[in-house]
Amino acid sequence: MADPLLASIHAEPPTVTVRRDDSLYSVPLKRTVHLDIVFPPAYDEYPQKRTGGEPLPVLYLNDGQDLPRLRMTDVLDSLYQKKAIRPFILVAIHAGDRIQEYGTAAQADYMHRGSKAGLYTDFVLTELLPYIKKHYRVSGDPAKSVFAGFSLGGLSAFDLVFHHPDRFSRAGVFSGSFWWRSKSSEEGYRDETDRIMHDLVRKGVYTPSLKFWFETGTDDETSDRNNNGVIDSIDDTLDLISELVKKGYNRERDIRYVEVQGGQHNQQTWSQIMPDFLKWAFPE
């Protein structure tokens, strides 16, 4: 039986709606976490507790305070008008102390950045997901749950998805901070095995349900620590993809990599490539 929400979206000019500054207090983080919730067109006609219709897929997004700079509502409106994506709910999580809360839960980097990444993971799994499922019409099925982020928030999103396939199935990483290291890289050439996320993937397990989307911009940065003519952000991302392939993921089926010519480390570039990610994450 057809979902009335989907039928309604396709019957009228679609417009997303935004509920700004929802919030919940996090015990592990010891702070209030602010959220923006973006609903697909016609969502208000179908309250959470109604009968019939399937719960919607959900995208959790780090650095959710940047939705205006990403022009996210315009991007979504355009995609819904073109019927290019399935309806989903976007949970935009405002950052707190992003230098400490974003990172890899298993360990901080060599400067002790990311020291609260484990607590942030705790917040997401034990507080945020139950809160969203209780208050909104979202699916708890990991196959319909996506996590994404930008820069350090992208590293965090990848870490969450890779280590928790029981909760998520897809990760979106825009200009991910995969340089995250256990030792300083300032003194001469360094051992690339010091990159924390690459090491975690090597030590991790292959999960057939997981899929990954990566973006880098050719102007993300200028650093080229090994002088191979390729900027570090691209090198680090491609090396991580290689680790995933060695682990068993199929480069064609499970991984999408997008390199934006002239793309920079900013919201303008990420907004430009956002439709590609959303069509990959929520195909019509």
What does this structure look like?
The structure is a single chain. By secondary structure, the chain is of the alpha/beta class. The protein has a single domain, classed as 3-Layer(aba) Sandwich (Rossmann fold), CATH 3.40.50. It has helices at 4-11, 67-70, 72-81, 98-101, 117-135, 152-163, 196-203, 232-247, 267-281; strands spanning 17-26, 31-39, 58-61, 89-93, 145-150, 170-174, 211-219, 255-264. An eight-stranded mixed sheet has the order 1-2-4-3-5-6-7-8, sandwiched between helices. Helix 3 packs parallel to helix 9 (267-281) and helix 7 (196-203) runs parallel beside helix 8. The longest helix is centred in the middle third of the chain and has 19 residues, at 117-135. It is globular, with a radius of gyration of 19 Å. The two termini are 17 Å apart. Mean pLDDT is 90; it is low at 48-52. This is Esterase family protein.
The CATH class designation is Alpha Beta
Strands of the largest sheet, in order across it? 1-2-4-3-5-6-7-8
CA gyration radius, whole angstroms: 19 Å
CATH superfamily heading: Alpha/Beta hydrolase fold, catalytic domain
How confident overall, as mean pLDDT?
90
Shape: globular
What is the CATH-assigned architecture? 3-Layer(aba) Sandwich
- Helical coverage, percent range: 25-40%
- Give the low-confidence spans: 48-52
Q: What letter string, H or E per element, gives the SSE order?
A: HEEEHHEHHEHEHEHEH
Give me the count of strands: 8
- Fill in the CATH topology: Rossmann fold
Query: What is the subunit organization of this protein?
Result: single chain
Distance between the termini: 17 Å
Largest sheet: 8 strands, mixed
Helix/strand class? alpha/beta
**Count of discrete structural domains:** 1
Number of helices: 9
